[in-house]
Design brief:
The chain is of the alpha/beta class and 365 residues long. It has 3 domains: 72 residues, DNA polymerase, domain 1 (Orthogonal Bundle); 179 residues, 3-Layer(aba) Sandwich (Rossmann fold); 66 residues, Arc Repressor Mutant, subunit A. The protein has 17 helices and 12 strands. The longest helix is centred in the first third of the chain and has 16 residues. About 3% of the residues have low confidence.
């Protein structure tokens, strides 16, 4: 028996959650050791009661684990244990993170900015446009976009990531032997080539709507921050936001009209200070302290092909004529308030038009 076999056995035990499994292993030393330990000794461990260890030595768990191992090998699935070096670093900080995480595709999270994007299945035109534009602007920071592969915001985020050549990861509420919803099967090949799928459900687990709540902890746990695009006053997105807050991660929500049913959840998160208000990529850059070193290297477009609004064009023309200038001088000569100019300069930087320098100085690239 390998340590993975033993972890699968423990994962199969009813009433024994991931946090309890980790506590048992921490006390005994290994998953194999837990299976070999006397039940009477396990019951002495604080927080481990009779219900959790009643069937821990049942041979049925080993048979089930062996069957799942066959499925894993046959389908080239990655089985990553919480003690492996390849286990996602953010998820490793969550006490209830899966002891075994199953993955498929070409997921690479090490040293990557990971952001989760969630929201309603009934996304509006406004929500879809905001999501697509946000991810397009974030592309310069080369983030990994995580979501749940569901209708609405989820699939919009995945598709926007793929269109911008970003890695994207879908967390599933079922085993890797199926896909839900079936209509999204058309995106699987592209997803696995540019990210992939994660789940902690087995191939033998029955699909159940209640699985989404368990899935949501992985979405929240994988990322540095969770972004809620649109949400009604109740729903899984709000649960994901609450979980992210419990993990001490940043949460962002897109505000909307008070009369819009799918803005009520976001407005509530902002009003109750459970989320930062998100109106543009500049909010993420500022609050998450994103550094220019994380930018994806890309060829700079010529000015001819970049569309600028009136104020951006004014700033561009001034810098082209005068050369390197500081923030206050730009604001004075372009007749723009400093608070408005700061966000505009960031947008121009993301468009590859100018570069920030020490001392609040800026110059065209």
């Amino acid at each position: 028996m390998t340590e993975l076999d033993a972890l699968l056995c423990l994962q199969h035990v009813p009433n024994l959650g991931d946090a309890s499994i980790k506590k048992l292993i921490q006390t005994v030393g290994s998953a194999i050791g837990v299976l070999k330990e006397k039940k009477s000794n396990l019951l002495k461990i604080d927080g481990i009661g009779q219900a959790k260890v009643t069937s821990i030595h049942d041979e049925g768990h080993l048979k089930a684990a062996e069957k799942e191992r066959v499925f894993i090998h046959k389908n080239n699935i990655q089985a990553i244990t919480y003690r492996d070096k390849d286990y996602p670093v953010h998820l490793s900080q969550c006490i209830d993170g899966p002891v075994v995480l199953f993955g498929s595709g070409a997921i690479k999270l090490k040293d990557q900015l990971v952001l989760s994007v969630v929201g309603t299945r009934k996304i509006t035109r406004y929500g879809a446009q905001f999501c697509e534009e946000l991810i397009a602007e974030l592309a310069m920071f080369n983030p990994v976009i995580v979501s749940g592969f569901a209708y609405g915001v989820d699939i919009t985020a995945h598709k926007a990531a793929l269109e911008n050549k970003l890695q994207t990861v879908a967390c599933l509420a079922h085993g890797l032997n199926q896909i839900y919803p079936k209509t999204h099967k058309q995106y699987m090949a592209a997803m696995e080539a540019n990210g992939g799928f994660f789940t902690d459900f087995w191939s033998t687990d029955a699909f159940n709507p209640q699985n989404f709540l368990r899935r949501n902890r992985i979405i929240a746990g994988l990322s540095k921050a969770t972004i809620v695009i649109e949400s009604a006053d109740k729903g899984g997105s709000l649960v994901t936001a609450q979980i992210a807050n419990s993990y001490f991660r940043d949460v962002f929500a897109v505000p909307g009209k008070t009369t819009d049913p799918y803005s009520k959840g976001c407005n509530m998160l902002i009003k109750t200070q459970q989320a930062h208000m998100l109106t543009s990529v500049a909010d993420l850059v500022y609050i998450l302290n994103l550094k220019k070193e994380t930018l994806k290297k890309a060829p700079v477009q010529k000015e001819l092909f970049i569309q600028l609004n009136t104020n951006e064009q004014r700033v561009y023309d001034f810098l082209k004529k005068e050369g390197r200038q500081d923030l206050d001088n730009i604001a004075l000569h372009c007749n723009l308030p400093t608070y408005q100019l700061a966000g505009m300069l960031l947008t121009l930087e993301l468009k590859g038009i100018l570069s920030p320098l020490p001392g609040k100085m800026f110059e065209l690239i």
